[in-house]
Amino acid sequence: MTDALFHEDDDANTPLDAEEMQQLIPSYITLRRELNEAEQVNIAHASKWLSSRRSDPLDEVFLRELHRRMFGQVWRWAGHYRKTARNIAVDANRVRMDTAQALDDARFWVANATYAPDEIAVRFSHRLVAIHPFPNGNGRLSRMAGDLLAVQLGRPQFSWGSHSLTDANVTRAAYIAALRAADAHDLGPLILFARS
């Protein structure tokens, strides 16, 4: 099994273009597992930063700062909206506008109790991952933002499949299947997965 840092058939992460790949900060990283470890350490630092502050996941500036905190020690583009196309997201020129709309919609849902708290948080998380505002890390950011919103609405953080006794590949496949159902306007599987 290959542990190449970047390869075309990797469906675990959004593919980066050549310029985005060159924005890797740590020079020691040559293998995918090293990249994953560095990103996980960076995300742990972001979680610690979050625990010491009051945060508003429905604030655009905060979301960009959260992404920067999650990935800024690994990628120079962290916290900056993507400028390149993705096959699973909105056009790059719509990222700012669609993100603003997602934030406005979520604020409306909260203010008017349009949905149950868990559904509001999961809908918001799904909208972020569908927009894919950043070159990479969108799923991790969207889940963290969903957790923050759930807590803000008086609910516990989501488990996002971590209570499952299956391996990470099975959990990821279940997450992707739930996202696809949500893309088809069926949020039920994603809400269930978020609490599994």
Secondary structural class: mainly alpha
Average residue-wise pLDDT? 92
CATH class division? Mainly Alpha
User: Quick one: CATH superfamily?
Assistant: Fido-like domain
Count of alpha/pi helices: 8
Could you name the key traits of this structure?
single chain, 196 residues, mainly alpha, globular
Q: Would you give an account of this structure?
A:
With 196 residues, the chain is mainly α. It has a single domain (18-158), classed as Fic-like fold (Orthogonal Bundle). It has 8 helices and no strands. The longest helix is centred in the N-terminal third of the chain and has 20 residues, at 32-51. 32% of the residues are buried.
Quick description:
This protein is an all-alpha fold and 196 residues long.
Secondary structure: elements and pairs:
Elements: H1 18-21, H2 32-51, H3 60-71, H4 95-112, H5 117-131, H6 138-152, H7 168-183, H8 188-194
